[in-house]
Amino acid sequence: MTKILQEKLLNSLNGADLLKLASDLIKINSENPPGNLAAVNDFIQFRLKSEGLNVEKLEPERGKVTQISKIGNPPYLILNGHTDTVPIGTRALWEFDPFSGKITEDRILGRGASDMKAGLAGILYSFLIASHYEDELENGIVLMAVPDEETGGRFGTRWVLDNTTLTKETSAALVAEPTEIDNIEIGQRGSIWGIFKSKGESAHGSLSPYVGKNAITNLFICLEKVKEITKIKAEIDSSLKRIVEDSKAKMQELIGVQGVSNAMDHISMNVGKIVGGTKVNMVPDSAEAEVDFRIPIGMTSHGVEELISKALRDFEGITFESQASHDPNNTSPDSKIARVVGAKIEELLDLTHTKTYQWASSDARYFRYKNVETVQYGPATLKGIHSYNESVKVSDVINATKVYLGVISEFAQPN
Questions:
Q1: What radius of gyration, in Å, describes the C-alpha atoms of the chain?
Q2: What percent of the chain lies above the pLDDT cut of 70?
Q3: What is the pLDDT of residues 220-236, one digit of tens each?
């Protein structure tokens, strides 16, 4: 019966309609910040209601609207996607209108094409197709369109999972974040965002370094000391080593910078912002640095904070305050959702698939923290994501949607 349903779903796929849906979504400006998403929410709501589907709107904070639509009954497969994009940046650096949604012979162009309006279009289109066969679904499907992944997911995915019973009714989740068409992401690194604060003693600049205590200089020396923790290699469980090695190889292939794959099994550290001092001829008595640590699987945020605290012992007047943190997270490569997505890539696209960990993070972590088996899979051209001239391959949008339909058939009508 699963194969029969899959054939029906795939036969309902109209490539031109799907690409137009992706294009229409890209044409709607949903940069976040500022996060004005009313237009894109109205568009999605109209498409769902025009098919006779109910839409539940959750708005824990004004303007932060998650739209949820359900077909069938629990246990549900959740199809999750975000409606917001990062800002376009400097308009003059784009080679085309970032909100054109132009469909060329082989690409769709514009902000969000890969991250992730093509993926959003794919799951929305797949959900609409599946709704036509609701009477044949043994298990249900949920579409979840969230507003704030690009700013942390606090009022979107995280809020919904913390404040509803949805996870208790869910068997698995598929997040349509950008991967590659043959790659499934089954885990991601954790992070700590925090502030180092340095206190010194002011004096006339002409007397430095003999008089006064320079808060900026001390902070620089401290950060170099803290940086030594990035040399520590994570201890990976033997069952996960193959995934980590495949992830390192994929990272090296995609980015191409020598040594970059070390970030997959080591802590990484980025000093993103520094402020301090009052005037050039004054010894600064205060300074702050905002730092982003990323944590590999095999470590915890608590463990990394302990390493930071240990490094600070030799520095008088410097403290560290964690502003936000989350642990690395992963779904078993043998979970049903990982196995099914992999099988559909091979069956429907005739490709050999890989399973890897993500070097950044996404809303997938919130599902995993609730013990929901979750993977990420979506069409993407990684060049241009969070940068300029973003695009996505037409063929990848269509092929990813085929996989979504195949996965829906397996979960909605299990053998």
A1: 23
A2: 100
A3: 999 999 999 999 999 99
